[in-house]
């Protein structure tokens, strides 16, 4: 896998600054100290720094360009005076080191190693053929310094590349873990909703099956035709109940599955009262009228209970010290039917620094899915006073039609 360094502006600025500086110094030294023709000095210096710029985007071509330019500069250089660094000029050493470290970081460590060895070989050959009259000490020192810096550049580039790879893998693993955790939380919430709806529907269908099957015994005066219809109804309910249990039975595979009866409106006052131990105040302003409750199914009551429960739990977790108010109201819809409004509003927390909307969980998503399953809607928003409000609206039209 190839690693691409981030093409951030400061990288290009640094590379451009190095290239401009090297070009100015290298062309000047080549034409003066190393006695190269001005045209050659300018052209080779430009070619050398072009490799320094190219290696940041095209590492293979950048290494090749700088290596060829440096080798030609070494071959054409002459030392006046003998004390000048030779056969490899200092500017060429700097250009090669920059090119090698970036090239190795880009994954071209083998090309960088070959490039450094090639420049060292050319320099040794030039020193052997041309520099016979010069003291061997400065030549050996010059080539040794270059080899040391080149090896350090390649090694540093490999280490930097490894660090980038490791950091990228850790970042990807963290992202995958977060996505997996989020999906698992969503699946767990949906599984819980499905399990609860399975329990409620199974209970209702069991009652239908038992009542239909026992109708001919509880009402001995009914005709045989009516009794047969009750038997067919019982058989249909029994078949549907078996199919549903076979389909959703896997939801009972976990040992933590809830076995107790599911809560409803009757348990709502205790839920709100239990929040007093954490909240400063929590009240249930308005209960649903009895005639409306008779039109509600257990699934509706369970949904209302879970919405209030999750809202109060969020207040406890994210708004410590605030007051929460729960209100249920029954409203007539324009035209026909009616709807139930569940409002949970809390004041600003006592510790403003600790208040905030936590987006890491899926409590609000779970409430939305529960309410949407009943063709309702749920809205959440911060209040002007610094608190938070949850409003759920559940239509009762469908249930009224089946009553």
Explain the layout of strands and helices:
Elements: H1 9-32, H2 38-54, H3 59-76, H4 90-105, H5 109-130, H6 136-213, H7 215-218, H8 224-248, H9 268-274, E1 282-284, H10 290-293, H11 298-318, E2 324-332, E3 338-346, H12 363-373, E4 377-382, E5 388-395, H13 397-402
Parallel strand pairs: 1-2
Antiparallel strand pairs: 2-3, 3-5, 4-5
Helix pairs in contact: 1-2, 1-4, 2-3, 2-4, 3-4, 3-5, 4-5, 4-6, 5-6, 6-8, 6-12, 11-12
Organism: Leucobacter viscericola
Keywords: ATP-binding, Kinase, Membrane, Nucleotide-binding, Phosphoprotein, Transferase, Transmembrane, Transmembrane helix, Two-component regulatory system
Domain Signal transduction histidine kinase subgroup 3 dimerisation and phosphoacceptor: 189-254
How would you describe this protein?
With 403 residues, the chain is α+β, with helices and mostly antiparallel strands. Strand 2 and strand 3 form a beta hairpin. The protein has 13 helices and five strands. It folds into three domains: 166 residues, no CATH class; 67 residues; 138 residues, Histidine kinase-like ATPase, C-terminal domain (Heat Shock Protein 90). Strands 1-2-3-5-4 form a five-stranded mixed beta sheet.
Q: Helicity range of the residues?
A: 55-70%
Largest sheet report? 5 strands, mixed
Beta fraction: 5-15%
By secondary-structure content and strand pairing, the structural class works out as alpha+beta
Spatial extent as radius of gyration: 40 Å
| Element order: H for helix, E for strand | HHHHHHHHHEHHEEHEEH
Strand ordering within the main sheet: 1-2-3-5-4
* Tally of helical segments: 13
The average pLDDT is 79
How far apart the termini lie comes to 65 Å
Number of structural domains: 3
What is the molecular shape? Answer: elongated
Q: Identify low-pLDDT runs.
A: 353-361, 398-403
Number of strands: 5
């Amino acid at each position: 896998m190839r690693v691409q360094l981030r093409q951030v502006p400061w990288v290009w600025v640094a590379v451009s600054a190095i290239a401009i500086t090297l070009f100015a110094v290298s062309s000047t030294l080549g034409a003066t100290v190393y006695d190269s023709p001005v045209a050659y000095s300018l052209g080779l210096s430009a070619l050398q720094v072009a490799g320094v710029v190219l290696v940041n985007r095209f590492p293979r071509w950048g290494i090749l360009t700088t290596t060829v330019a440096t080798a030609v500069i070494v071959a054409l250089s002459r030392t006046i005076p003998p004390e000048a660094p030779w056969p490899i000029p200092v500017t060429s050493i700097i250009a090669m080191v920059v090119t090698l470290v970036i090239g190795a970081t880009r994954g071209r460590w083998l090309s960088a190693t070959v490039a450094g060895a090639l420049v060292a070989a050319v320099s040794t050959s030039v020193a052997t053929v041309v520099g016979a009259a010069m003291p061997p000490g400065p030549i050996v020192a010059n080539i040794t310094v270059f080899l040391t810096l080149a090896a350090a550049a390649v090694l540093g580039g490999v280490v930097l590349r490894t660090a980038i790879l490791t950091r990228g893998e850790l970042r990807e693993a963290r992202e995958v873990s977060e996505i997996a955790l989020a999906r698992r939380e969503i699946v767990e919430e949906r599984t819980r909703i499905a399990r609860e709806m399975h329990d409620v529907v199974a209970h209702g269908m069991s009652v239908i099956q038992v009542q239909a099957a026992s109708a001919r015994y509880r009402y001995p005066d009914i005709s045989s035709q009516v009794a047969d219809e009750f038997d067919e109804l019982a058989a249909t309910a029994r078949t549907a109940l078996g199919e549903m249990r076979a389909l959703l039975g896997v939801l009972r595979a976990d040992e933590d599955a809830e076995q107790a009866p599911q809560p409803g409106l009757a348990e709502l006052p205790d839920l709100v009262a239990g929040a007093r131990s954490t909240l400063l105040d929590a009240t249930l302003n308005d209960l649903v009228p009895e005639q409306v409750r008779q039109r509600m199914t257990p699934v509706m009551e369970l949904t209302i209970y879970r919405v209030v429960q999750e809202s109060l739990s969020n207040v406890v977790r994210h708004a410590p010290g605030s007051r929460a108010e729960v209100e249920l109201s029954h409203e007539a819809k324009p035209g026909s039917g009616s709807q139930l409004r569940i409002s949970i509003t809390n004041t600003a927390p006592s510790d403003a620094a600790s208040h905030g909307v936590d987006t890491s969980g899926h409590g609000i998503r779970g409430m939305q899915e529960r309410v949407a399953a009943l063709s309702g809607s749920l809205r959440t928003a911060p209040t002007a006073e610094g608190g938070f409000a949850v409003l759920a609206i559940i239509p009762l039209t469908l249930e009224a039609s089946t009553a």
